[in-house]
Every structure is written in C-alpha cells, then in structure tokens.
Write a structure and sequence with these properties.
- This is Patatin.
- Pfam families: Patatin.
- Lipolytic acyl hydrolase (LAH).
- InterPro entries: Acyl_Trfase/lysoPLipase, PLPL, PNPLA_dom.
- The chain contains 11 helices and 7 strands.
- The protein is α/β, with parallel strands linked by helices and 264 residues long.
- Strands 1, 2, 3, 4, 5, 6 and 7 form a 7-stranded mixed beta sheet that branches.
- A hairpin with a 5-residue loop joins strand 3 and strand 4 (149-152).
- Helix 5 runs antiparallel to helix 7.
- The longest helix is centred in the C-terminal third of the chain and has 20 residues, at 234-253.
- The radius of gyration is 17 Å and the shape is globular.
C-alpha cells in the first residue's frame, strides 16, 4: 500500500477542471466534488482524521460528493460516503481489538485483520449503506484474472459493500491467510498494491487528477517499510486521527478545500 512517500505526488493535489467523463468500470456520474482515499494500512486512521474535519466543515453537503478509494482508502471513502462518525468508529475498533485480544497476539493483526474489519464495518455502517454508496462510491480492486485495476460501484446490499471493501484491502495471506478475496465470483487483491510499487496513485484512483486525494501526511508518523500493517495502541491511533484533522485544518486555511469543495 502507498505510505507517506506518496505525499508529494498525490496527497491534497489541486484537481483539474471538473467535467463529465465516461468510466470504463462503473457508472457514468455527473460532475461533482470528488474525494479519494489512498492506501496506507493502519494509516487509515490519519485519513479518518481528515474525514472528521470535512464532516464538521461541510456537513450534509458531502452527501453530493463522489468518492473513490483503494485498500485502507476504500474504508475511508466508504465511511465518508455513509457519514459515519469517526469517533464512534474508533470506539468500536478499540472494543473489537480488546474482544479479540489483539494486543496479546505475538503476530498482531496477521491472519485475523480481515474478520475484524468485516465485523467493524458491519457495526459502524448504517443499514442503508449500499444505497448511499451505489453509483457514488468507486472501490478499486486488482483483478487477479487480468491484473487490471477495476472500479466497483454497484452494491446490491450492505454485505456486498463490505465484501468490496475487504477485496480492496486484501493483502495476500495477511488478512485471512488466503491469497486473494472473492467478490461476485472473481478473485481480487489489494487495490493499491501496484501504486506502492510505482510510488504514485493510479489515474483511475485520482480520476486523472480531478479528485482530491488524501493519504498519510505526517513525517512524525512515518511507519517505515512494514509499519503500515503493525498494530497501534489506542493512544497512537488517537494521535493519528488528530494529525489528520490538523492537516485538513491547514488545507482549509490555505484555501485548498474551498477551491475544491466550495463553501459550506
């Protein structure tokens, strides 16, 4: 997954002029502000901090935004699309970590992260999540049959939306000891793996630069090569949320958010 080394290339980039464009994977969508969540593993919580600020700054107007995301960023975009309260999502995650005794496991999240994320999404997403996301949220996955990046935006149920998120975040073997995830009969892996190798986000994920991309932007939180999949204690996670929130505040003060999303 991409980490902070992508920051100078993709995070909070100014969008190109918005226009209606056909998409090879997914539905045709009208012009609207776009927000993209980049990959980053546990760095999801930093992205969630950005979303928390955006929710407070823009409120109900976010309901008209288009969303995209890959891997951890798919979770970010899904929570944003469904107006999930970030603090409540954090509380739920910490409770599940305790219930599953994650801090007592010598191998941390390895092999169990998938089922915990599934349970977490099932609890924090509203019953109407599929309706809120259909034709509006594009989740990036890597098709193992063609190795092409595919964007999913048709969700028949909340369960299917959860499945799409887990397919997008599927690091082979790490989530559940399996080499791939299965979604609607096809095999997929993490939607940001190639981005990590290339060192930049794909054009499909950024909609050719039209979407505002959020991905970890804090040198103090640099996690190194494998830190993005390491378990963090609650204090560290809260710090990540606060850092993301503060970053969004700085973007707002610089006028970046208003240029992209308009005023309240």
């Amino acid at each position: 997954m991409p980490t902070s080394r992508l920051a100078s290339q993709a995070a909070a980039t100014e969008p190109k002029t918005r226009q209606v464009l056909p998409d090879n994977e997914g539905s045709h969508m009208e012009s609207a502000p776009q927000l993209t969540g980049g990959g980053g593993g546990i760095g999801f919580w930093w992205e969630a901090g950005v979303v928390k600020y955006l929710q407070q700054r823009y409120g109900s107007s976010m309901g008209a935004w288009q969303m995209r995301g890959a891997s951890a960023g798919a979770l970010t975009a899904t929570l944003a699309a469904c107006s999930v309260n970030v603090d409540k999502a954090f509380d739920c995650a910490q409770r599940l970590a305790q219930e599953h005794r994650l801090f007592e496991r010598s191998i941390g999240l390895t092999g169990v992260w998938g089922k915990i994320v599934r349970q977490w999404l099932d609890e924090v997403l509203p019953a109407e999540a599929a309706d809120l996301c259909r034709n509006r949220l594009k989740i990036a996955v890597r098709d193992m049959h063609t190795f092409k990046l595919v964007l999913l935006d048709q969700f028949d149920s909340k369960a299917e939306l959860v499945d799409a998120n887990l397919a997008s975040a599927h690091i082979p073997f790490f989530l559940d000891w399996k080499p791939f995830a299965v979604y609607r009969g096809r095999r997929y892996v993490d939607g940001s793996l190639q981005d990590a190798w290339r060192g930049k986000h794909s054009d499909k994920l950024t909609d050719n630069g039209r979407s505002l991309v959020i991905t970890l932007q804090d040198d103090k939180l640099d996690m190194g090569r494998f830190g993005f999949v390491k378990l963090k204690d609650p204090k560290e996670v809260k710090g990540m949320i606060s850092s993301g929130y503060a970053y969004a505040e700085r973007l707002d003060a610089a006028g970046t958010l208003a240029r992209h999303f308009g005023t309240r």
